[in-house]
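Posting for a labmate who doesn't have an account.
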Amino acid sequence: MVCIRMATVNDLLQMQMTNLWCLPENYQMKYYFYHLLSWPQLLWVAEDFDGKIVGYVLAKMEEDAGQMPRHGHITSLAVLRTHRKRGIATALMQRSQLEMHQVFASEYVSLHVRKSNRAAFHLYTQTLKYEINDIEKGYYADGEDAYDMRCVFSKQTPQNKRGCEEGECAVEDDAVVKKVQALSVS
């Protein structure tokens, strides 16, 4: 059984450990604190039956006040290998996106993904309906390129819409709640 819930300060160390196990991009603890203090609604964890954090999403709102439209950004998403292929990453992403849209009036969400990360690319393009906005050459510390991806929320006005087709990147309250509830009981 896995429970998707909002992260607390007590989860940060386990989130960092999950990051270290899963990803080559690692962050200092102060970066996790900064996210939690600034955007607590956007940090979500997947907690196993024994209280172990097995996945997380670390997200934020872009801070440039002059940059319009308002949008969120997925900083990091990780799920331990032992818990993959269960819809946990999808549930974490959808929950964070829902909060971006409802709490912060975000019009779209962006993220970066390694060009070589085919599993993540499939999740973002096929399941979550993100589209490539650009390619950032040498984005990662090891020099690998990144896809700059975006997903526009469906309630945005048609003339400002870029990326997802109508309804594809919708932030559906009922759908997210049902998926999260299903994960919590399985």
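Reply:
Got it, the structure tokens are right above this. The helical segments are 12-22, 29-38, 88-104, 118-127, 173-185.
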